[in-house]
TrEMBL record:
Main localization, broad class: membrane
Protein topology in the membrane: Multi-pass membrane protein
The keyword Transmembrane helix is annotated on this UniProt entry: yes
Family classification: Belongs to the ST7 family.
Lineage: Eukaryota, Metazoa, Chordata, Craniata, Vertebrata
Protein name as it appears in the record: Suppression of tumorigenicity 7 like
Record has Transmembrane helix as a keyword: yes
Localization per record: Membrane
Record's GO cellular component terms: membrane
Amino acid sequence: FFEVGHLDKLKSWLSWSWTYICAVWFAMVLTMIYVLRSPLKLQDTLTSASVFLNTLTPKFYVALTGTSSLISGLILIFEWWYFRKYGTSFIEQVSVSHLRPLLGGVESSSTTGLFSSVNGEAEPRPSVSECKVWRNPLNLFRGAEYSRYTWVTGKEPLTYYDMNLSAQDHQTFFTGDTQQIKAEDTVMQKAWRERNPQARIRAAYQAIEMNHECAAAYVLLAEEEATTITEAERLFKQALRSGKREQRTIHGSFVRKNINLLVYIKRRLAMCARKLGRIKEAVKMMRDLMKEFPLLGMLNIHENLLEALLELQAYADVQAVLAKYDDISLPKSATICYTSALLKARAVSEKFSPEAASRRGLSTAEMNAVEAIHRAVEFNPHVPKYLLEMKSLILPPEHILKRGDSEAVAYAFFHLQHWKRAEGALNLLHCTWEGTFRIIPYPLEKGHLFYPYPGCTETADRELLPTFHEVSVYPKKELPFFILFTAGLCSFTAMLAMLTHQFPELMGVFVKAFFSTLFTPLGFFADKMESFMPSSFWHQLTRI
């Protein structure tokens, strides 16, 4: 341990002194060049170079500075495009990944899994599960909703990455033990993986021909082929009948597959009832489903229930659901946090006035509402811009990233109407939501009420959301140094080119004065060195 401690101290001392050693070495090189200026004929070289530069016309300098401006402008455009697309500087990335190993720089691995807490102690970073992509509890129907959007606008609302995740979900949920798999299940496994919607639909019909009671095939047709919610509901009811008949005849590993399939079908039937206006029926179906399968909380059926209860304006029932699921031990979501904020804001928002609040201060109820809004905004800071219609909404994806822009889109798409219905709630949100960012510690490696924001949110959201949507990023990334540097270089060289073209003689005088001023300290330093050192010493050193 003693030797290791001394070795670490030696390494730290060397790393600390490296900068000063480089400076001393650089000064020694300059001194040697000055001493050897006569044998190297540096004076003659500088004189000939000066004569050559004086013979050049102003047009050469215009071309030189103009070309420099053009090249730096192209680099700036590429750097800006790369930063907007990938969130980092290309030059910086190449420098870190290729040049740092050559220079001996190694990132410290001892701190990669730690971050400082508010009191300065080391705590583990949030695990990768915080960047886990979740199934959207309120995802739309592909045939009846997503496809209609494509027909009208010509834009694809779903990304391939999002649809591929859905295919994996269906394969995992609706497939039992591969050793006992049926022929129609094999067909459906391939159907979920098909990229072409028509190929998926043909595979579903092929599975139905093999077995008229193939519930998974009816599910695919309800999701993909049905062009209306009514038609989708009819196919889901057929799938439910087939699934129940199949459940009576199966045993073993197929039970798990069938239960997952039945839960999925019942949930989608409840969503169909909600979309068709039969909200009380939808609420009853969701409550029954949660009682029948209480261990399937990971499916977040309570979020479907919260949205339906808000539509009924059954705020007492909403509060009862929140009391059960807004627990410190349970994972949070934007639906939980913002619904809690909505209920507290609704109690005070009707009579809330910013002017009156600034004069008399906030009451206890108003303070609770503001704190709930701050809590919700810290969990997902992207939501308020959609609720306040500062940013346009798009169709929500089939998967969301918690605390990301995809979750904000999904929440605002279904819950904006509930905030509008509560009079004054959006006004209270507008007055208070930006105050959250004064509470969150800076730098943002530290959290306040929740874990710090994961670094993977922007990348995952860009994969989940369509390209025509401008992804919201928080915290905002500062522009890299190389973008600012190339922008300044481009502007400076363009200005030089323009001035040299317009005022060639004046610019020549200015450049000569600039360089003479620049080299004056060097001349002064050289004169001092010659007067300080004896001439015989320089003569002997030159001979050596």
